């Protein structure tokens, strides 16, 4: 059983936040861009991340990870006058943090840093330190400060972690992380809780569209995140909602899993829906069952590898919603490589390696999420996640913002970005050297 604490910091800040919010009933749609970071795309890293995250829920050391194949980031401004950053969105962690100007460590060398002394609204919180460990054993250490956040048209006072020691391995273009976890563990003040307590949004929900990247062309994928509603121009049909399990935000029961024509048992299974991770993490028996259906799959001590092209699709069912991971996304194209077996790709369906623990909860990341429109709804005490098929012109009785024409809504065009060039070689050397 995990014990969740309502945060004393959040309670203390609520009054200040109420008066500091510049607008209420706001809807703000912000473009997402994608970066690649192949450094830790492997089952062992994912496993360690999983256990650290799970164990981090009831501790004061929340865990985060951006060490994945693909990172989805958004622009965030902090301070007065605003300083601009690019942060990874992560529905699997609670804190939002940025490297500070006095940061030491290789992780902050190339990132844009926040200067608290240059902001009239930056108020360091005493005893507000945090220490987040990463899958690689590296981490970030810093102090909390209350500060003005500007996210598109949304402006509010929240709590940011200012990192003073950063040994995380980031791409240079990622300056920090935006935790979109909902409940606060000890000492954390997640921005969703702040937005809710300050009634800043029209609806307490975020809608996310993660655009699919094309590994081979390094085109500029992105997507869009809407705070306060959903963007009907990004999906079709209705949104199907599933209630989260009581003690875990953004975790829902899995109702079905089909690979090709084969059903795999999901009795009693729950899954964390996590924008901050690339792949899927399932028990070894399930990974084996999935790959038994995939022609040519090869098991290694680094997990399953599959031919880079194929036709066996994977379908997850949540409630009555069925979302398909096409074969081309199960076979992580950025890992295409030559092995003794020929041209193989790492499979996105990973299982814990290098650990003896069994997993209690599956992890469903971007390999699934980029195939659907997803909604994280914290409007009532029972949080819920909604899914819809990608498309245009969906329906919603709640939180509809279209593509930005609604009053109070702001939409940015998705910037044309440079996706970090992916060196297949570095993936291979990490996969086989780091473990
Ligand atoms: C920072 O950028 C420089 C120049 O691109 C590069 O040589 C260096 O390795 C980078 N440092 C880190 C820690 O990534
Ligand atoms: C670094 O900055 C933070 C917040 O701006 C501050 O709390 C901390 O004392 C500073 N550390 C050093 C060594 O200056
Ligand atoms: C941060 O956490 C790690 C792992 O728990 C620990 O080894 C380290 O001493 C901590 N550092 C600080 C400054 O608390
Ligand atoms: C959406 O929901 C409405 C109301 O329940 C229903 O009438 C309609 O058929 C649904 N549309 C689709 C595409 O499922
Ligand atoms: C899967 O089912 C479809 C429809 O029933 C059938 O056409 C197809 O041959 C089946 N595929 C396999 C590999 O059994
Ligand atoms: C798998 O999905 C792809 C892409 O949606 C589709 O083209 C293909 O027909 C599907 N394969 C099967 C066997 O349904
Ligand atoms: C719309 O929002 C209200 C209040 O947040 C909620 O009670 C209702 O169930 C929502 N309706 C739908 C269809 O999601």
UniProtKB/TrEMBL annotation:
The active site is at 90, 274. PROSITE patterns: ASP_PROTEASE, PEPTIDASE_A1. Keywords: Aspartyl protease, Disulfide bond, Hydrolase, Protease, Signal. Pfam families: Asp. Residues 72-388 form the Peptidase A1 domain. GO terms for biological process: proteolysis. This is Peptidase A1 domain-containing protein. Residues 1-23 form the signal peptide. Belongs to the peptidase A1 family. It comes from the Eukaryota. GO terms for molecular function: aspartic-type endopeptidase activity. Disulfide bonds join 103-108.
């Amino acid at each position: 059983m995990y014990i969740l604490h309502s945060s004393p910091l959040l309670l203390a800040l609520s009054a200040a936040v109420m008066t500091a919010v510049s607008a209420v009933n706001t809807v703000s749609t912000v473009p997402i861009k994608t970066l690649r970071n192949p450094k830790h795309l492997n089952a062992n890293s994912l496993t360690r991340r999983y256990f650290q995250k799970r164990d981090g829920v009831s501790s004061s050391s929340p865990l985060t990870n951006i060490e994945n194949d693909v990172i989805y980031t958004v622009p965030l401004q902090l301070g007065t006058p605003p300083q601009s950053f690019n942060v990874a969105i992560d529905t699997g962690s609670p804190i939002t943090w940025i490297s500070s100007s006095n940061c030491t460590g290789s992780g902050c060398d190339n990132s844009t840093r926040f200067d608290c002394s240059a902001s009239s609204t930056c108020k360091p919180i005493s005893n507000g330190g945090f220490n987040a460990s990463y899958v690689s054993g590296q981490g970030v250490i810093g102090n909390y400060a209350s500060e003005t956040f500007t996210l598109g048209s949304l402006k509010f006072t929240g709590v940011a972690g200012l990192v003073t020691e950063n040994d995380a391995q980031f791409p240079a273009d990622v300056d920090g992380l935006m935790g979109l976890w909902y409940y606060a563990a000890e000492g954390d003040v997640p921005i969703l809780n702040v937005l809710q307590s300050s009634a800043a949004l029209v609806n307490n929900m975020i809608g996310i569209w993660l655009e699919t990247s094309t590994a081979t062309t390094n085109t500029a994928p992105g997507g869009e995140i809407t705070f306060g509603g959903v963007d009907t121009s990004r999906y079709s049909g209705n949104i199907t909602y599933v209630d989260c399990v009581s003690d875990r935000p953004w975790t829902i029961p899995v109702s079905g899993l089909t690979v090709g024509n084969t059903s795999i048992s999901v009795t009693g299974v729950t899954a964390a829906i996590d924008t901050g991770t690339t792949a899927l993490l399932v028990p070894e028996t399930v990974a084996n069952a999935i790959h038994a259906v995939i022609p040519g799959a090869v098991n290694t001590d680094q997990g399953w590898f599959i031919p880079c092209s194929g036709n066996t699709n994977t379908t997850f069912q949540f409630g009555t919603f069925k979302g398909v991971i096409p074969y081309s996304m199960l076979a992580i194209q950025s890992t295409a490589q030559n092995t003794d077996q020929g041209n193989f790709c790492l499979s996105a369906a990973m299982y814990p390696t290098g650990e003896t623990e069994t997993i209690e909860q599956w992890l469903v990341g971007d390999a699934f999420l980029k195939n659907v429109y997803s909604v994280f709804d914290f409007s009532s005490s029972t949080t819920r996640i909604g899914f819809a098929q990608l498309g245009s012109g969906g329906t919603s009785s709640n939180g509809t913002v279209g593509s930005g024409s609604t009053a109070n809504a702001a939409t940015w065009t998705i910037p044309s970005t440079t996706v970090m060039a992916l060196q297949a070689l570095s993936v291979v050397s990490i996969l086989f050297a780091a473990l």
